[in-house]
Amino acid sequence: WSRPDKLSVEARLRTLAAVEAKKINPNIKIAFVGGHIENAPTVSQRMAEYFCARFKDDKTIVLDKSNNTVGNIKEIIEYINSNPDNPQNVIILSSPFHMERISKIISHLGQDFELINYDPLVTARSQRHDDFIKDYESSLDYKKMKAFDQLMMVYIKLDPEQILVSKIKEWARSRRKRNF
User: Fold this and answer.
1) How many Cα atoms within 13 Å fall on the side-chain side of residue 162?
2) Do 10 and 1 meet the contact criterion of CB atoms below 8 Å apart?
3) What is d(CA 174, CA 167) in angstroms, rounded to the nearest whole number?
4) DSSP reduced 3-state for 31
5) Burial class (CB in 10 A: 0-12, 13-18, 19+), 6
6) N or C: which terminus of the chain has fewer CB atoms within 10 Å of its end residue's CB?
C-alpha cells in the first residue's frame, strides 16, 4: 500500500493516534505491528521511526513478522504470552473502516482486546488537519481501502485465519522473484 521509504496516510494517522494516546497516558507501551515487506523496512518499523521522531519513547515495540490482520493479532498474542511483564490491557488503535473486521478476528481468536477508533485521537487538532482528513477520506486511495476492507469482511467469514490470502501473497512473491 505504500512505498518502502514512505508511510501511507493511513499509517501516519495510526502513528499520530499513538502519539496522542501516549500523551494521554505516558506509562503505556506502544507496539507497531505488521506490514512485512521483503528486503525493505517494514511498515511497523517506519511507523515506530515516525512515532519516535515525534515522541521520545524507549518502550516502543516493533512486531513485524506478519503481513495480514490475522497475523498481526496473532503476533500481538505471541508477544504477550512470551513477555515476562505481560501487559494486562491491550488496546488496538485502528481506522474506522477496519474496526468491524478486527473485532471479528479478535473474537475468533478468543481475545478480549479493547478496540479503539483512532479518529477521535487525530481529529480536531486544527482546521488544516481536519481539511486533510476530509480530503483523504474523499480520495480514491481511501475508497479503495474501504472497499477492500468490505470485501475482506465477506472473506473473513469464509477463511477466518486468512490462510488463502497468505498462500496467494506467497505465490505472488515467488512470481515476482522469478520475473526479476
Assistant:
1) 23
2) yes
3) 11
4) strand
5) exposed
6) C
Give the pairing type, strands 91-94 and 61-63.
unpaired
Determine the distance from the C-alpha atom of residue 171 to the mean position of all C-alpha atoms in its chain, rounded to a whole number: 23
Kindly report, residue by residue over 113-165, the tens digit of the pLDDT.
Answer: 888 887 777 766 666 667 766 777 777 777 777 777 777 777 777 777 777 76
- Cβ(103)–Cβ(79) below 8 Å: no
- Give whole-number Cα distances, 89 to 28, 38, 103, in Å: 10, 31, 16
Which stretch of DSSP H or E encloses residue 93?
strand 91-94
Cell 483523504 -> residue: 136
pLDDT digits (tens, 9 = 90+) for 34-43: 776 666 778 8
Enter the pTM of the model. 0.67
